[in-house]
Structures are given as structure tokens and as C-alpha cells.
Design a protein that fits this description.
By secondary structure, the protein is of the alpha/beta class. About 35% of the residues lie in helices and about 20% in strands.
Length: about 500
């Protein structure tokens, strides 16, 4: 399974893996040739097409040498390109869209029997993804989809055309899934939606999202709740109050800005202006002074002038984002922005992009430096960073979602999902380091669930308090984590 794009695609891939395992398939070992390769694609960025067809080209000789291999392509790019994928890569066996991921096992079998490619693109949602079986990637943290689709009409975005109009799950179904996950050992959930805080619009409750956050706060055993991505237009005071008043809702907000220029926001058809965005930031900081705010920004949107770009820099300075996912504008066929006049020259876009990244890196570094000397509680994570053998470092996420690489010291090794308290000793723009040792280790049901997934004997243990030895010297610079996302 190869996944590109946003968290929604990651969650869809968990469903696709669950469907295949439910149909009798097993995940192929890393050093073997798989019988089935599935690409779950993204269409937001301009190079998405090149990336897919390049990977398909690399697989062709592998398939030629293994005639029984099947290749399937799904996701947003499949929804957009449809039969074009098979025309350009006739060795592909199955193409399916965003609305019919549940059809994958049937399409694979049909292609195998009929010995020809199967292309099936549904125009509307067949099953809400969360009704399908799932093979969760994490034992301790889970995505929970509360809505799919988007009712906005941003001129740069193709996702509404590929994901369809917003469809909301009933609150009882969402909460039932969260409770079931907690029973399995999950202690952190992230609520997902293309426009997550518009939740409830389909069934006419404008406060449905804040009510859902508060209801999550009443679920015993659920320690951390996050959500992504909200739209500033729908960010209401009741959501801020619910975040601040619900202890397990984390002090973290990812809210896409896209541009700081009200003129560019109007051209993007984003239904807020600079003042509205900064007003939300001010209210969030007043209610949760410790909150980390992150964002998405597009540089070089058609018609963006140097004055417009200066407005974006102004909002970045005022907002003091913990991190920003920055993108150089790229045309997406089928979007209004692709045919707009005044396309900004690539060299201008690149120069502005570099200035924005330099500014945001400086701010991120300054904000992270404020945490040096503070104790933070981390959820130990898996796959967030390469284990550092010299310092015996592992990685974890703070409540505000900052990435922290921490030295285990002599305290024993915590498991993914366990909670540790550490003191931050070093700050870089994209991560923190805690080389003072583990001050406190709290073994959790999530850690037990991770043990069980590894096939280890599970002994539910009482929380331990362990003292670590302080580290000496300045920690080495760690690489910044790769990543990025885009609201839709």
C-alpha cells in the first residue's frame, strides 16, 4: 500500500488494507515481491501525476517478471483521471475512485477472472469509509472520520470535485467508533474532515462540532483528542470554548491561512479576510495561552503582488505560528485558478517562498526556544524519527503536537503509546530535544496494545515513576520531519 496526500488518504488506506485482509490477503514482507500493489493517490499538487506515472513505470518490469501481480490505483487522482490511467499505463489492473473504495477486492477478483483492466468510478459516496473494516497503522492513535467532502469552492482546490459535497456522520456513530477504539487500547484520536468544523451542516446543528468535542471529553480512557483541518469561516466561539474547557482536547490548532492578503483571499474564494483570521488567533491564545497554532500557506497565487505577499508576512509575524506548511502555487487542471490571468512568474514565486520559509523557520525556532527548561509529557511515538543509538533517544509528541526527541537514560525503554515526562534541553525550528532523561514513565493501555500487536506477552502494569540521569553536552541537531498537508 502506497499512500500520497492528506490524512484523509492515510485513513482511507487503513480501510483499504482492512478490506484486503478481510478478503484473505496478508501484508507482504518488505523483502518480497507483493502480489498486489495499491496506490492511493492525491491530486492536490501539480507533481502528483508525474509521481504516480513514474512509480507505475518502475513497476512495469517487476510485473512483467511476475505475471500474477496486480496493480490498483485509487484516490483523488484516480477519480480525476479515470480511464486515462489505463491508457497511459495499460499494465494497471484496477482503477477505483474516492467514493467506492469498498469495491477494491471485487474489482481485483473481476480483473483476475476476466483478464482485463477494471475501471470503476462512482459519482457519489457508496459507504461512509468508517463502516468498512480497517487495518489501523497505530495501536495507540487513530484517525476517526466525522465527515467527507467539502461544500466550499476555493478557486485553487480540486478536492470538492473529487470528494463531493460534505456528508456528515451522526454523532452517535462517531462516538461509538471512538469508544470502540479506546476499548482496543487507543488513547489518542484525531477527528478528520475536509472542513472538520463545518460538521453538522448536513443535519442542521451549527454547534455540532463543539458538542462532539465535549462528548469526547467524557469518554473514559481517551487521553488526547485532536482534529484537522478547520476552516476559519466556520471557526466559532463555542469551538474555542469547547477546546479550552475539555481537558483531553489538546492545545493545538491547525488552521489554514493560505494567504494573508484579503484581496488574494477574495480571489481564492476563501470566505474570510485577514482581520477575521487574526481575530480567531487572538481568541484562541486568550483561551489557551499554551496552544501551538500551525497553518498552510500558498505563495504565488495568480495576481499576488509584492504588497499582497507582504500582507502574508505580516500575518505570519502576528500569528507566531509554531509551524507552517508552505507551498508554491501550482495549477490544477479543472480549477478556476488555473485559467486566471496574471500568473506569477516561477522565479518570483520561488524567491517569495524562500523568504517566507526563512521567516517562519526563525519564528518556529524562537517559539521552541521558549520551551527549553520546561517539563512536558509526551506520548511515545513510533516512526516519528530515527532512533538515536548514541544518546538512546526515542521520539514523542507533546500535548501541543510538537515533536520531541528524548533520551531514555537509565529508566528502561518505554513503549509506543506510553507517557513520559521529560525536560526540554534544546530547541531547533522543527523539533525539540530532551536529553535530561525520563523524569516519569507512565505505562498505559496503549503501550499494552502496542505490545500485543508485536506478539509480546501483555502484562497490564501499574504506573511506574522512574528517575533518569541528566545528560551532558549540547545535543546534536536532528533532521526536520518531512510532512505537509493542505485543507480542501
Amino acid at each position: 500500500m502506497r499512500t500520497y496526500g492528506c490524512q484523509m488518504n492515510v485513513h482511507d488506506s487503513e480501510r483499504l488494507s482492512g478490506l484486503l485482509e478481510d478478503a484473505g490477503y496478508a501484508r507482504a514482507a518488505e523483502d518480497t515481491t507483493a502480489d498486489i500493489v495499491v496506490f492511493n493517490t492525491c491530486a492536490v499538487r501539480e507533481n502528483a501525476d508525474n509521481r504516480l506515472y513514474g512509480n507505475l513505470g518502475h513497476l512495469r518490469p517487476v510485473k512483467d517478471a511476475n505475471p500474477g501481480m496486480q496493480i490498483a490505483v485509487g484516490g483523488c487522482l484516480a477519480q480525476k483521471d479515470r480511464g486515462e490511467i489505463v491508457r497511459r499505463a495499460p499494465w494497471v489492473d484496477v482503477v477505483f475512485g474516492t467514493h467506492n473504495i469498498g469495491s477494491l477486492p471485487t474489482l481485483l477478483e473481476r480483473s483476475r477472472v476476466q483478464r482485463e483492466a477494471q475501471v470503476e468510478i462512482a459519482e457519489s459516496l457508496e459507504h461512509f469509509p468508517s463502516t468498512l473494516p480497517s487495518r489501523r497503522e497505530s495501536a495507540y492513535a487513530a484517525w476517526v472520520s466525522i465527515s467527507v467532502g467539502c461544500n466550499n469552492t476555493c478557486t485553487f482546490c480540486i478536492v470538492p470535485a473529487l470528494r463531493g459535497k460534505e456528508k456528515d456522520r451522526r454523532p452517535g456513530d462517531v462516538l461509538a467508533e471512538v469508544r470502540a477504539l479506546v476499548e482496543e487500547g487507543v488513547t489518542e484520536v484525531t477527528l478528520l474532515g475536509q472542513n472538520v468544523n463545518a460538521y453538522g451542516s448536513e443535519f442542521g446543528d451549527r454547534q455540532a462540532f463543539s458538542k462532539l468535542l465535549r462528548a469526547c471529553g467524557e469518554i473514559e480512557g481517551l487521553e488526547r483528542v485532536r482534529f484537522t483541518s478547520p476552516h476559519p469561516r466556520d471557526f466559532t466561539d463555542d469551538v474555542i470554548e469547547a477546546m479550552a474547557q475539555t481537558p483531553n482536547v489538546m492545545p493545538q490548532l491547525h488552521m489554514p491561512l493560505q494567504s494573508g492578503s484579503s484581496k488574494v483571499l477574495r480571489d481564492m474564494r476563501r470566505s474570510y479576510r485577514q482581520e477575521r483570521f487574526l481575530g480567531i488567533v487572538e481568541k484562541v491564545r486568550a483561551a489557551m495561552p499554551q496552544a501551538a497554532i500551525t497553518t498552510d500557506i500558498i505563495v504565488g497565487f495568480p495576481g499576488e503582488t509584492e504588497e499582497d505577499f507582504a500582507e502574508t508576512l505580516h500575518v505570519v509575524r502576528e500569528s507566531r505560528f509554531a509551524m507552517a506548511f508552505t507551498f508554491q502555487y501550482s495549477k490544477r487542471p479543472g480549477t478556476p485558478a488555473a485559467t486566471m490571468e496574471e500568473q506569477v512568474p516561477p522565479e518570483v514565486v520561488k524567491e517569495r517562498y524562500q523568504r517566507l520559509v526563512a521567516l517562519q523557520d526563525q519564528i518556529s525556532w524562537e517559539e521552541n526556544q521558549k520551551l527549553v527548561g520546561r517539563e512536558v509529557e509526551l506520548m511515545v511515538s513510533e516512526g516519528e524519527g530515527k532512533k538515536d543509538g548514541e544518546h538512546r533517544r526515542l521520539s514523542g509528541r507533546a500535548p501541543d503536537n510538537r515533536l520531541v526527541h528524548f533520551a531514555v537514560g537509565d529508566s528502561g525503554e518505554p513503549r509506543p503509546g506510553d507517557m513520559v515526562t521529560v525536560e526540554v534541553t534544546y530547541a531547533a525550528p522543527h523539533h525539540l530535544v530532551a536529553d535530561s532523561g525520563v523524569r516519569n514513565l507512565r505505562r498505559t493501555r496503549a503501550g499494552d496494545a502496542w505490545d500485543a500487536r508485536q506478539g509480546r506477552p501483555v502484562q497490564v502494569s501499574k504506573p511506574d515513576v522512574l528517575l533518569g540521569m541528566p545528560g551532558v553536552g549540547v545535543p546534536e541537531e536532528q533532521p526536520a520531519p518531512a510532512g505537509g498537508c493542505c485543507d480542501a
